[in-house]
From TrEMBL:
<dbReference type="Pfam" id="PF03564">
    <property type="entry name" value="DUF1759"/>
</dbReference>
<dbReference type="InterPro" id="IPR005312">
    <property type="entry name" value="DUF1759"/>
</dbReference>
<protein>
    <submittedName>
        <fullName>Uncharacterized protein</fullName>
    </submittedName>
</protein>
Amino acid sequence: MPSVNPLIMQKLDANPKLLEVFEEVLNMNFWEILSKENNRLAWSLLEERYSNTREQIYADLKRFMNIPVVQNESASTIQNLIDVTIEVVRSLEYLDQNLEGFSSTIFAFILTQKLDQNSKIGYERNLKDTLPTISELLDFLKDYARTLNAAKTFIIQKFLQWLHV
């Protein structure tokens, strides 16, 4: 039997029947401890938590709204912004909340408010006269992140060349 707290052992010694049950539990396989009833309860709790569409949608919207404002322009922060937005959009689409028309424009507007000044300026330069959609903004941000990453790589290469000269 595994090592047991002395106080517990004292109680178990005083009650041999309790010791029998305790040894049986310690020797059981973890999966045997979980009964079908416990599985049903756990499943119903999961269903209850995740079957509330309104709560799921609100959680997605909250996650989107809580994306931090980009303070310093960098490929990794822009990519994080893209990743979270795409996850939220896909989750909303799975819940039959497609971003089309005005809702897409609102999402694009909110997301632009989270960009740093340089990214906003770059995006504004690319805008046409039509209202932007979230997918157009995400396409721009993907290109922008790649450009920032390429520029960083170029600068590092030039710096390394300078060090070796």
